[in-house]
């Protein structure tokens, strides 16, 4: 069936473009267009598997920082000059991270007001609502807030750092912890942006082979796990208990690439013992297996759960 599709000139040349798909050719070396389109669709599958992790990272971090700063500075902690910073000097422009936080909250406030007018018919000046504005903030807001500009005596860090990151710290000093958290967030925001802009999730400088691409993806999953565990171990356990981490790890394997390239073996099932063995194999390997009943033509997939 996949060999009957019009890969060229329709799917690849016109609807996807050779410029976009050439990077898949150079890294994964597919033997034909079926395999090329397979690895392209595998990337979409990976993006879908990573999406819940990136969403959890953004929402959990946002709410953890907001709750900590509300307790220390009040509900509109970003307004009225409450956010002091290290390099403040009278008459001198704020540094980029500080100005970016201000700009992001100004944009979030405008977007909240616009939504109230559009969806709820509000007129005139719309009073900002704490949770409404927070929900409209961009992910970059929280990366900028973890900048060293906000680290120092009398500033939000280190005073509130332990309220935001309640899991085990990998370092003891607050300054090192702030820098570590900032680096994690910066890395994961870049991954999140690649996913949301439909770019290859595996792509970066130095990724030259399939093995490189898979290693890169596994590293990013590990960083998401690390940040969630730092914020609160229970947020990581939620994803583990519901199989979202398992699904993400399984997606980033050569076996899944071969499945999307239609190169995976189809197992014939002629007894309950064979079926039971395949189910056990899926659970042990965290894999997806294609199967077919001996007396049937329809293929089906066996997943671990």
Summarize model confidence as the mean pLDDT.
93
Detail the poorly predicted runs.
none
What portion of residues belong to β-strands? under 5%
Domain module count: 2
SSE string, helices as H and strands as E: HHHHHHHHHHHHHEHEE
Q: Give the helix tally.
A: 14
Distance between termini? Answer: 29 Å
Give the strand line-up of the largest sheet: 1-2-3
What is the gyration radius calculated from CA atoms?
24 Å
Short overview:
The chain is mainly alpha-helical and 305 residues long. Helices cover 63% and strands 5% of the residues.
How would you describe this structure to a colleague?
With 305 residues, the protein is mainly alpha-helical. The protein has two domains: 2-260, no CATH class; 266-303, no CATH class. 63% of the residues lie in helices and 5% in strands. It contains 14 helices and three strands. The protein has helices at residues 7-16, 18-28, 33-73, 96-120, 130-136, 140-145, 156-159, 161-164, 174-196, 210-231, 233-241, 244-251, 254-260, 272-285; strands at 266-269, 288-293, 299-303. The chain has a three-stranded mixed beta sheet. A hairpin with a 5-residue loop joins strand 2 (288-293) and strand 3. The longest helix has 41 residues, at 33-73. It comes from Achromobacter veterisilvae. One of its GO terms (molecular function) is peptidase activity.
What are its keywords?
single chain; hydrolase; mainly alpha; protease; three-stranded mixed sheet; peptidase activity; 14 helices; 2 domains; CAAX protease
